[in-house]
Specification:
Blueprint: H1 3-7, E1 23-30, E2 39-41, E3 47-49, H2 51-66, E4 70-77, E5 81-88, H3 114-133, E6 146-150, H4 153-165
Antiparallel strand pairs: 1-5, 1-6, 2-3, 4-5
Helix pairs in contact: 2-3
Length: 179
């Protein structure tokens, strides 16, 4: 096994798609080992955020404040994952410049691209959790995230409904792992 292949992971992104271009994206971010760290769902199907869940909520909402090119649509923090719709706007979104990584180099973050936004969100949540518990580098997130490019209004509305109803469907959710 070469040094490079050891670090190579299969990407779930569309090849040659510019994730910095204007568009709506449905994202799901999961916790490491699907640990329920954000709170619990009560018998009425309501998500009850704990302190860590409140950090994730605050930082998710803050994403729109610190990025002029981002509009947040529907989202939900679940016990062990987050679903959200992110809309990247502005004609000044950077064009994705594809690079082939060398043995010791991975792609550099692309300003305003979905991957950069998600990476920064996960990083700041991790940093705040680390500070809260006085630990260094806690493992909070599953590597990467799931994304789906929303291509039309019907799909957008279906995904909004899915997100809104997600807490009520927790008992049958594929991310719901018995503790």
């Amino acid at each position: 096994m070469t040094e490079y292949s050891h670090h190579k992971r299969k990407s779930t992104r569309l090849k040659d798609y510019d994730y910095a271009q204007e568009g709506a994206y449905f994202v799901t971010l999961c916790t490491y080992l699907n640990q329920n760290i954000f709170g619990d769902i009560n018998n009425d199907g309501e998500m009850l955020l704990n302190t860590v869940g409140c950090i994730a909520f605050e930082e998710w909402e803050h994403t729109e404040t610190v990025r002029e090119n981002v509009i947040l649509d529907e989202f939900v923090i679940m016990p062990n994952h987050i679903h959200g719709i992110i809309i990247i706007t502005t004609e000044s979104a950077r064009v994705c410049q594809r690079q082939t990584p060398t043995k010791s180099q991975f792609r550099k973050p692309i300003p305003n691209a979905l991957g950069t936004i998600m990476g920064q969100f996960k990083g700041i949540v991790t940093k705040r959790i680390s500070k809260l518990y006085g630990t260094s580098s806690p493992v909070v997130w599953h590597k990467n995230y799931y994304d789906h490019i929303i291509r039309n209004e019907k799909s957008l509305n279906n995904i909004r409904g899915y997100i809104q109803n997600n807490p009520m469907r927790w008992s049958i959710d594929r991310y719901n792992k018995p503790t």
